[in-house]
Amino acid sequence: MITKTYISENGPFKNIGYQQYTEDGREMSHASIGTRLTRYAGGWIPTMTVGGVGTRPQYRRQGCVRAMLEDMLPRAREYGWYVSILHPFSFSYYRKFGYERVADTVITDMPMSALDFLPRYPDLVPLDEAARPEDILDVFEAFSVPRNLTFKRESVGSFKKDKCVTYLYYNDAGKCEGYVITQIDNYYDNINRMISVNLIVHEIVYLNKDALMHLLSFLRMYEGELKTVHFRDIGMTPEVDLCFKHFMDTRYDIHPDIMARILDTEAMLRANAYPTERGHFTLRVEDNLETVRGTYRVEFENGTCEVETLSDTAKADLTVGPTALAKFMYGTDAFTAETAAYLDGVKIEGSVTDFFRAFPKRINGLYEHF
Q: Tens of pLDDT along 214-230?
């Protein structure tokens, strides 16, 4: 097996094309390793993204993907990665490498009539007609703060999608506080007319309830033309679901989606946003990666922390493996000592109240597929 990597610059970071060949030059497998800034606890962290993974059928089950991951994961400090994320083709497969599910895609369909509790609101501004199109960058930046995994966006072009229209919401004071990206799903009936069926909502972004209600009210402007509304993902926008009123004809399809693998425990501990009230915990991580395993004493107060690395023999309040570590650090649930004990590799020997105060349930997800 011959491995070739192709490295390109991505601003201060690097993207890596990974390919494996037989001795006589036939491609066996490939993958794309990217570096992106993703949200974590309100800040941005450098993240290794894994995409485009594939192995030709005749070369499968020969360890091609394993070889790639075992080569790239230990390079966390070299490339500055804190964590790795991917869309898995198999959860059980990637779990063998320390990845764990941290976010779901929630597809939601409803009849247009399910929005009848809202007034109609027409006064959104198409992005291409906005006097200040760069407003959308500020809105997305603020919207992303409480939503782990969100990719950082730095150009207005990233809000333009093929066959879609992006609309901005401005409040009465003229401040942009939200946007929605829509697409009309239609087809030609082969006789003499276009049949419009579905309104697809690709993204809905808001800074407060008032903005969200105006965006949802705008969707009612499609009444009479479209029969149903299709939200491509409300997993990262649970506030949207809180606003719905009719559910008998509403369908939710939950698709387990993003997996994460912690690559630098100390960096993630320091990147976390901590409570104001003082607390402390000692965490032991058992892992085959040098940058992940270890015993860490954390003291926190007023949103910041001090991290001390202890000896391997030091007593720990909580011992975890890499999969539980990912779920805890990303706050996939409101864990307690009782519920955490159900996860593989978790051992509790002291008080974990402060640990779970430091890592509460958080919103995870992103609109992009990478």
A: 999 999 999 988 999 99
pLDDT tens digits, one per residue of 298-320: 999 999 999 999 998 999 999 99
**245 burial via Cβ count (<10 Å: 0-12, 13-18, 19+):** exposed
Examine residue 88 and state whether it is found in any structural domain, yes or no.
no
Domain boundary residue among 194, 219, 254? 254
> Looking at the domain assignment, is residue 153 inside a domain?
yes
Alpha helices in the chain (DSSP H): 64-72, 76-79, 91-95, 135-144, 209-219, 238-243, 265-271, 322-330, 337-340, 353-358
User: pTM for the full model?
Assistant: 0.93
- Length of the chain, in residues: 370
Task: Compute the C-alpha angle 116/121/123, nearest 5°.
Answer: 165
- Domain extent, residue 118, equals 106-254
Q: Judge whether 91 lies within some domain.
A: no
Count of structural domains within the chain: 3
Alpha-carbon distances of 100 from 44, 289, 310, 320, 327, rounded to whole Å: 20, 16, 26, 13, 7
Domain shared by 222 and 349, yes or no = no
What is the structure's pLDDT at 318?
98
